Task: inverse folding
């Protein structure tokens, strides 16, 4: 018997993280701050790598692509969420919802593949340091990055196509802040069996395959590092890999917990919290994790700030005059204070 109550929805309503009015302004300010930190931090990483010739190596080429993927990943969901906080309708069109799903999956998969490629880069650098320039050539790096993009788009296209086949009822309210896979399948009137099957097969192969590749790479790295007699070499190797492992643990931990379990056990509230972790918090932390633990990035950043500071004073004669007047004065004051202290 055909159910005549089924309708073709033209839009969805994104209920957001919280429906309590008193929480809307604090949530808006919090997510706006995190988004601003994410955008500025990742663009700073990209700018540093582009304008610092010594960072034009495979490791930093992959890092710049990861930073760009983080910017796009967060920009897919957060601006719409911020807009909907003060919107009376909180609506998103059907095609807009599918587009958001597509780009969300695409950039999540891209980050997944880039993390695997970065693990391979560390493996070659530590296990085969003398052959590193010959193995990871500029051509191979470009091919690996291009492959990451192609596989990400194919992965996103598959899951978005399956979501587009679902039938949705008149109840079009999504208890989430963006069009995520499980919340959409939850409100569907048709069976999401094929969608779930594809997540648990193709999705597991893509995500867990990359994770297995990362674990294997680091198993070889640890084996080589532990055989090294130099304590300094061990510390440098683990320090270099530590930032990457931190990002891997946060990203894959939350991603696996949200998606790779039965749809019946999916909790909307828990899913929202964990999704915030890998869609907003992790991309925001990535620039700090990589920069604070990386001497090359910190050195490049200090030189960049010094260059901007110097050019600023050169372009402002009045400021330069004040500095030139202040420096001798401070020098005399310092010598006088030293005389009295001695």
Result:
């Amino acid at each position: 018997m055909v159910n005549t109550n089924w309708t073709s929805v033209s839009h969805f309503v994104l209920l957001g993280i919280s429906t309590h009015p008193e929480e809307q302004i604090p949530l808006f300010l919090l997510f706006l701050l995190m988004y601003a930190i994410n955008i500025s931090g990742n663009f700073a990483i990209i700018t540093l790598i582009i304008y610092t010739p010594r960072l034009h190596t495979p490791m930093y080429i992959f890092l710049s692509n990861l930073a760009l993927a983080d910017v796009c990943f967060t920009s897919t969901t957060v601006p719409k969420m911020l807009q909907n906080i003060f919107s009376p309708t909180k609506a998103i069109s059907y095609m807009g919802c599918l587009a958001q799903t597509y780009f969300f999956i695409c950039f999540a998969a891209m980050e997944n593949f880039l993390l695997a490629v970065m693990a391979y880069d560390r493996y070659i650098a530590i296990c085969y340091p003398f052959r590193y320039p010959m193995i990871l050539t500029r051509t191979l790096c470009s091919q690996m990055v291009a492959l990451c993009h192609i596989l990400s788009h194919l992965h996103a296209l598959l899951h978005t196509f399956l979501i587009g086949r679902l039938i949705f009822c008149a109840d079009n309210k999504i208890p989430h802040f963006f069009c995520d896979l499980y919340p959409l399948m939850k409100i569907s009137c048709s069976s999401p069996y094929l969608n779930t099957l594809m997540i648990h097969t193709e999705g597991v192969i893509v995500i867990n395959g990359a994770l297995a590749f990362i674990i294997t790479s680091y198993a070889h790295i640890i084996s080589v590092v532990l055989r090294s007699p130099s304590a300094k070499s061990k510390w440098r190797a683990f320090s270099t890999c530590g930032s990457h492992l931190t990002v891997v643990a946060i990203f894959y931990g939350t991603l696996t917990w949200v998606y790779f379990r039965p749809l019946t056990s999916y909790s909307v509230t828990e899913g929202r919290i964990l999704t915030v972790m890998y869609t907003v918090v992790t991309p925001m932390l990535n620039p700090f994790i990589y920069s604070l633990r990386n001497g090359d990035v910190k050195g490049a950043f200090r030189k960049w700030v010094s260059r901007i500071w110097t050019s600023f004073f050169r372009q402002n004669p009045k400021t330069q005059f004040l500095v030139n007047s202040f420096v001798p004065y401070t020098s005399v004051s310092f010598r006088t204070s030293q005389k009295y202290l001695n």
